[in-house]
Design a protein that fits this description.
Keywords: ATP-binding, Nucleotide-binding, Translocase, Transport. It comes from Haladaptatus paucihalophilus DX253. By secondary structure, this protein is α/β, with parallel strands linked by helices. The chain has a domain at about 5-85 and about 155-250: P-loop containing nucleotide triphosphate hydrolases (Rossmann fold, 3-Layer(aba) Sandwich), CATH 3.40.50.300. It has 8 helices and 12 strands. The chain has a 6-stranded mixed beta sheet with strand order 6-7-8-3-9-10, with helices on both faces. Helix 5 runs parallel beside helix 6 (about 170-185). The longest helix has 16 residues, at about 170-185. The chain starts with a strand and ends in a 5-residue tail after the last strand.
C-alpha cells in the first residue's frame, strides 16, 4: 500500500511547524525523515496516522483519503511504533503484541488472533520472551515487542518514530534490519531518525527538514555535506563507502 502526501502542512493550533510536503512512499520502499528535534518530524508522522489533522493538504493511503477512513481502518492499514511507549501497566510480551489485533477484535481474541501473535513473535525471534513482563526486558527487546505489536495489525505500511532511540548499536542494527525485512515483504515504511549514517544504510529515500520546510527529498545523493549542515547546523565531510558516511568536522582540532 502506498502513502501519498500532497501539499501537506502540519502543526498545532493552526500554526505550521512543517509545510509543503509532497511525496509518495511505495510498497517495498523505506523513507527516512531526517532533522533535528523540534522541526515537526513526529508531528508529520502523527498526521500521516490520522492522530491529528493537517493544517493544509492531504494524506492518502493507497489512493483513499485519510479523512474518509475510520480509526480502525487506518490501524488495519498502518502499523505504528511511537517514540516512547509507556510500560507503567504490567503486561506480558504476548499480551502487548496481542494489542496489535485490537482493530480486528469484537470482544475477545480468537484462536486466529493468538496464532497471528505467535507467528509475529517467531518472526522477530522473541518467542522465548512471550510470558515475560515488559518491565523485565532490555530496551532493545522492548523495541522488538513494540514492532511486533505493529506487525500484529497485519498492516501494509509502517510508521516508526525514532525506532532506535536509546538503543545500543547492536540493537539499533537488529531493529533496522527487521524493519528493512518488513519493507522487502511489501510494506511501505516511513520512519523519523537522527542518525544520518544509519538511515543511509537502511533507507531508500530521504526527507531532510529544517526551519519549517523541506530541504531535500530523494535518494542517497541528497545526503550531501551542504544539506546536512543546512539541516543540523554542523559542518561535515563525506566519506565514500557503499553508502554515504558523513563525519562531523567539529572536535577535530
Amino acid at each position: 500500500m502506498s502513502i501519498e502526501l500532497d501539499g501537506l502542512a502540519v502543526g498545532y493550533d493552526g500554526t505550521p511547524v512543517l509545510e509543503d510536503v509532497t511525496l509518495g512512499v511505495e510498497p517495498g520502499e523505506v523513507l527516512a525523515v531526517l532533522g533535528p528535534n523540534g522541526v515537526g518530524k513526529s508531528t508529520l508522522l502523527r498526521t500521516i496516522l490520522g492522530l491529528q489533522s493537517p493544517i493544509r493538504g492531504s494524506v492518502a493511503l493507497d489512493g483513499d483519503s485519510l479523512s474518509d477512513l475510520s480509526r480502525d481502518e487506518i490501524a488495519r492499514r498502518v502499523g505504528y511504533v511511537p517514540q516512547q511507549e509507556s510500560t507503567t501497566v504490567p503486561s506480558t510480551v504476548f499480551d502487548a503484541v496481542l494489542m496489535g489485533r485490537k482493530p480486528y477484535l469484537d470482544w475477545r481474541p480468537t484462536e486466529e488472533d493468538k496464532r497471528r501473535v505467535a507467528a509475529v513473535l517467531d518472526s522477530l525471534d522473541i518467542t522465548e520472551l512471550a510470558m515475560r513482563n515488559l518491565h523485565e526486558l532490555s530496551g532493545g527487546q522492548r523495541q522488538k515487542v513494540m514492532l511486533g505489536r505493529a506487525l500484529a495489525q497485519d498492516p501494509s505500511s509502517l510508521v516508526l518514530d525514532e525506532p532506535t532511540s536509546d538503543l545500543d548499536i547492536r540493537h539499533e542494527l537488529d531493529v533496522l534490519e527487521l524493519v528493512r525485512r518488513t519493507s522487502r515483504e511489501g510494506n511501505a515504511v516511513v520512519y523519523a531518525m537522527h542518525d544520518i549514517n544509519l538511515a543511509a544504510r537502511y533507507a531508500d529515500r530521504f526527507l531532510l527538514v529544517a526551519d519549517g520546510e523541506v530541504v531535500a527529498l530523494g535518494d542517497g545523493s541528497v545526503l550531501t555535506p551542504e544539506h546536512v549542515e543546512r539541516v543540523f547546523d554542523v559542518p561535515v565531510r563525506l566519506v565514500e563507502d557503499e553508502t554515504p558516511i558523513l563525519v562531523p568536522e567539529r572536535g577535530r582540532d
